[in-house]
Amino acid sequence: MSSATVRCASCGAQVDPAAKFCPHCGAVAPAMGNTEPQDHDLTALLVSANLLRTRRQFTEAEEVCRDALAIAPEDAGAHALMGDIFMNQDRYKDAAVWYQMALDIEPQNVSVKSKAERAEMLQKAQSIRVQTSAAGAAVAANPDPQGKLDSFVQSAGYGTVRNIVLIAGVCLFALIVLAAMVSRSRDRRLPTEPLRQGAATQPASAAREAPQVPSSSVTQASPVPQGRTSAPQVVGSATGSVIEPSAPGTVVAPRPVEQQFARNLQRADVFQGGKAALRSVVADPRDNRVFVTVHVQPSQTRKAILESALGVAGGALMADRNVDNITVRVDTELPSDHTGTTTQIAFVGDISRTGVEKHKPQNDSLDTLNAIFSNTYWSSELQTSSSASAP
């Protein structure tokens, strides 16, 4: 063996005799540089086969390489060269087989391992192309729409589309159920949308300006008899700007949520035993406010009226936790220049949830109770009436 260089049995290149692999083609060292006559024949055959491969004479190259394998069946370089011949013909499956045989002989040959991985990858890609081409040819050969539909149903794409449709359907159903639950939850609360056109209510600005309210603008209903135990009927009729009960003893609440609020409010202590009677409930969504109109027995003092109004405010907060502000209107029978006495607004006042919660009843004086409310209005008839004067 020459000490300078040896010739690679696979590609014929001159390489260092100490090299474990050919730097040009990756052939293993045992296939290089042997001086035995048989090895010279093997080297010549491999060089010839590789030359034929580069000239794309693949049939002749394969025959010569098989002759080399007949001489040295355990030569990793010969197996790798056979893989190269098949690789150049795009016969990736055969190439992968021969590369694997070479790796079985020389597992550490990095070059052959890389070639084997590339052959397997190209084989898979080639298989997919073949399947796609076959499917396209089948569809082209069968113009029948039903046949195309059957082919699509049997394909893997149909399963994917079906799963997407099922998932979308489940999500849509869940959204519908969630929307229904949210809608029901909102229906149980006071309305947050603007009141409908023509709904019966007194604007907040009118209540806060404290004008003299004429008796013709007041809800008309019979006074509550002492000792009444049954709650008044809650109705939803309203006309113009004045709430008109359909019958004496009814409570007008224009919308279902207000009707439910009125039913809850009537459980308050102030409405038990005939102390007061609920007239109407109207919600104002601008500041989570409710307007509550109540009727009290005549001959009430201002302090008694304030105590009733405070009881109404506390009941309103218990009736719905979303209420933040309450405007209480109290009407009663007051003197009139024309008919003796008529039902008139005696008191109007605003109070917030904070004001109600901070108040601790301690036999409060008239001034203390009056200070709890803001924007108060007192009827001049009440102030001059001897039967309803302050204590």
Account of the 3D structure:
The chain is of the alpha/beta class. The protein has three domains: 6-129, Alpha Horseshoe (Serine Threonine Protein Phosphatase 5, Tetratricopeptide repeat); 155-187; 204-388, no CATH class. It is built from 13 helices and nine strands. It has helices spanning 37-54, 58-71, 76-88, 92-105, 110-141, 145-154, 156-187, 204-209, 256-265, 302-319, 353-358, 366-372, 380-384; strands at 6-7, 14-15, 234-235, 251-252, 276-284, 289-296, 325-336, 340-352, 374-378. The strands form three sheets. It has a five-stranded mixed β-sheet with strand order 5-6-7-8-9. Strands 1-2 form a two-stranded antiparallel sheet. Helix 3 packs antiparallel against helix 4 and helix 4 runs antiparallel to helix 5. The chain starts with 5 loop residues before the first strand and ends in a 7-residue tail after the last helix. Residues 33-37, 190-231, 237-248 and 384-391 have low confidence and may be disordered.
How would you sum up this structure in a few lines?
By secondary structure, the chain is an alpha/beta fold.
